[in-house]
Amino acid sequence: MADEESNSNISQSSEEKDDALINELPSALFWDAMEIRKWQGFWFEPGLIKCAMKFSSSFQAGNDDVLLASAPKTGTTWLKALCLCILHQNHNIPENEDLLTKDNPQFHVQTVESSIYSTKPTPDLYSTPSPRLIHSHLPFHFLPNSIINSNCKIVCVARNPKDTLVSLWHFFNSIFRGNQEPYPLEKAVDEFCTGVHQYGPYFENVLGYWLESQKRPEKILFLKYEEMIKDPKEQVRKLGLFLGKPFEKEEDLEKVVWRCSLERLRNLEVNKNGSVIYGVPNASYFRKGIVGDWKNYLNPEMENRINQTTHLKFKDSGLEFEELLES
C-alpha cells in the first residue's frame, strides 16, 4: 500500500513538473480556436506535448514493430489502410471479414500521441500481436530511442506543401469553423509558411524523415503521395517488399491496391458515418485526394509565398514533389 502511494506521488510530481514546463513555453492561438505551444522547435496543443513526452521517454520498440510517420493531411489514412492490409490481412478474405469495412483505418492504426498516450490509463501496447503497427505525426527527433536504435521499421508518407496546406485548411475548417465562414486562406498560408500551426512547421517535419531515409534506407521508407497516386501498384509493391511481405502474385497486389483505394474507402459505409477520435467525423478523412487541387484555391501571391518557403527549406536536400499530374 505504501509503495502504491509512493509511486502515485512520484507520478503526480512528474506530471506537475511537465505542466510547469509546458506553461513556460511560447504560446500562440491556432486559427483563433486552439492554444498551441512551441516545444523543441515545433508547435503542439499542450496536451499533445505531455503525451509526446510519455511516448518518447517510455515506449519500448520491438525489432519487428512498424511505425508509420506523416505530417498531418499528407496521406496518413491511406498509408494506414495499406499497411494494415499488407501486414495483418489475408489477401483472399471475403468482404465481410475485411477490417476496413468494420472501422476507419484511424481506429485500426492509432496515432500514439493523440489516441494512445492521451488515454488514461494508457492501453497495454505490449500485449498487441506482432508485428505492432503504430502511427505518429511527431517529427523524427521526437521519436523514442528504442525506435531509432532498434530494427523497428519506419514508413513515412509526405505530400507536396501546397496540396497539404489546402487539405489542412479544409480539415480544420470542418472542425473549428462549423457553419461559420472559412478561416481566411491568406492567414492560413502565412501560418503554414512560418510554421505556427498544429504539428508545425511542416517543412522541418518532412525534411527530418527525408534526410534520415537517405542515410538509412533499410530502416526508413520515404513515400511521396504524388507517386502513390500516379503509380499505386509500383508504390504498394515497394511497400510490401520493405515490410518483408513481398507480393508473390500480381493479383494479390491488385487486391490490396483496390481494397485500399481512396475511392473504395470513401464509399464504405463505415467511413460515411461515425467518428474515431475527438468526435472528428470519419468522412472528414476523405475529401478529393487528388494532386494539384491547390490550383483551385491559391492565388498567385499565395502560390509564390509557398514556393519561396519550399525552396528555402528544401534547398540542397534533394527533396522534390510533383505538384500537378497530367490527366
Kindly describe this structure:
- With 327 residues, the chain is of the alpha/beta class.
- 47% of the residues lie in helices and 10% in strands.
- The strands form two sheets. A four-stranded parallel sheet has the order 5-4-6-7, with helices on both faces. It has a three-stranded antiparallel sheet with strand order 1-2-3.
- Residues 4-8 have low confidence and may be disordered.
Main features:
15 helices, alpha/beta, single chain, four-stranded parallel beta sheet, 7 strands, 327 residues
β-strand percent reads 5-15%
* Strand numbers in spatial order across the main sheet: 5-4-6-7
Which residues sit in consecutive blocks of at least 5 with pLDDT less than 50?
A: 4-8
Q: Find the count of extended strands (DSSP E, 2+ residues).
A: 7
- Please provide the ordered H/E string of secondary-structure elements: HEEEHEHHHEHEHHHEHHHHHH
- In DSSP terms (H or I, runs of 4 or more residues), the helix count works out at 15
Biggest sheet character: 4 strands, parallel
Helical/strand content category: alpha/beta
Distance between the termini: 68 Å
- CA-based shape: globular
Helix content: 40-55%
- Using only CA atoms, what is the Rg? 20 Å
Rounded mean pLDDT is 88
